[in-house]
Structures are given as C-alpha cells and as structure tokens.
Amino acid sequence: MVQYIESGKKKQEKSNKLIYALIIGAVVLIGALAYGSDNSGKQSLADADLPSGEVHWHATLSINLCGQEQPLPVTPIKSHLLHTHEDRLIHVEGVIPDPESIMLGRYMNYALGLELTNTSVMGYRNEIESCNDGKDNTLAVLVDGTPIQDHMNHVIRDGQKIRILYE
Q1: Whole-angstrom Cα distance, residue 113 to residue 130?
Q2: What is the DSSP string of 19-40?
Q3: Cα dihedral across residues 139, 144, 150, 151: positive or negative
Q4: Judging by DSSP bridges, how do beta strands 82-83 and 90-95 pair with one another?
C-alpha cells in the first residue's frame, strides 16, 4: 500500500511537471506571436522575405509637392544595388544583403540625394511650408495606392508604384 501511494505521488508529480511545461510553452509561443505581429501598418523587417540570389527589380517613384509633379534627378550610380538611370525607375540589382539596403529612405537620401524624413520631403515640412492657403499640410506615402505608415523603412519591391505626396 505504501508503494502504491508513492507511485501515485510520482505520477501526480510527473503530471504536474508536464502541465507546467505545456503552460510555459504556450505562454512563450503566444508571447512570440504577439511580439512578432505588427498591426501598425509597418512592414516588419523580419517579414521582408528577401530572395537569397541576385535580383533585377524595378519600381516606380513619383513625387508631388503642392500639386506639382517633381522630376526625379538622374544621379551618378553610388550603389550598384540601389540606383536609378535615365529611365528614372528605382533599380534594385544584385544580391540584397539585408532589408535596410533597399529601404525607401536610403534610396531617397543616398541614391538620389533628395531629403526624405518622417515629416519632410525635399525641403517641404509638415505644417511649415504651406501650399494650402495657410492650412496644415501633410506628407503621405502610398505604395500601390495604399498609404503606408513608416515610409523611411519601407522595403522596396519589384513592380511597386511608390507615390510621395505633400499637400
């Protein structure tokens, strides 16, 4: 009888350990899923899912300041990975080492030499430079017609149509 009670306790202890392990595993899994999700409209760098081989991508960029389309400059190639030619398309050519290499902010500021921040583009700043008869102005960036939140960190993709609006 003593042996039966001891073996019952051991079974109960093993069962409790298993339950604790399952609870801890579930909490860790839920936490990882919650941490990895991003509901703010930003593209997660972990979700960039970039190809491992060479790419030759093109994306379109247009900039409209106060209702006026701005011509994109043709600049000397500073980076073989991220650049533009006379066609004024965004070119991504080669192996992409990391998502940061092909972000919109990097392209604008480095490859084109045009200022882009979270609140300004080419010298036009939210609520300072007025093109709306003294009303507040806004800076918006759309990708394929959809507004994005974190435009500086937007990872450029093949075939995208990127539009920067200051109005």
Answers
A1: 23
A2: HHHHHHHHHHHHHHHHHH---S
A3: negative
A4: antiparallel
